[in-house]
Amino acid sequence: xxxxxxxxxxxxxxxxxxxxxxxxxxxxxxYFYWYRQILGxxxxxxxxxxxxxISEKSEIFxxxxxxxxxxxxxxxxxxxxxxxxxxxxxxxxxxxxSRGTEAFFGQGxxxxxx
Amino acid sequence: QKEVEQNSGPLSVPExxxxxxxxxxxxxxSQSFFWYRQYSGxxxxxxxxxxxxxxxxDGRFTAQLNKASQYVSLLIRDxxxxxxxxxxxxxxxxxxxxxxxxxxxxxxSVSS
Lengths: 114, 112
What we know:
The complex is a heterodimer. Helices cover 0% and strands 49% of the residues of chain A.
């Protein structure tokens, strides 16, 4: 069964460093998303991406964050100058065509900023 | 501010019973409604989605939607200990690429 894969599963970084979280969406999906979940809190939307551009972003997704689809399979989230409060699970998700809004999530990357 | 509200629980049911999970949402423009299951430390797993008023059944799961009341529910029949997890309600505008707005989830515990 097709699935969304994310790497790494766990990333520890020092405050102020840059991190790149990687995702391979389901191959025939067109829409890609990043969500985060701080421990004990709800899943929060960060950004959606379609046709090589951002289609929607939340207030959380400020200038510290960027997304990119560097090739035909990978989708990345870059966090510049990480802060302690960026520590969270980051989930990549993808969904299919224009009416297929069901989003399927990867297993997540646990980011710990120390 | 778009909100999705769920009772955090825990909801405790014995094995074989029906578990009923409820969710309300604030944005009347919401068109798509999803139930995800999340085991501790894992990612959300899609179990049901519903777009139209009424009931939708899939195996032991039934989703119910009432747009007039801005209410969506999930029934789990013949609950199993393996159903013990946090159930997340999520909604969006049913436009591709739009954000899913999640509730905080209801923790279900099924005792054997």
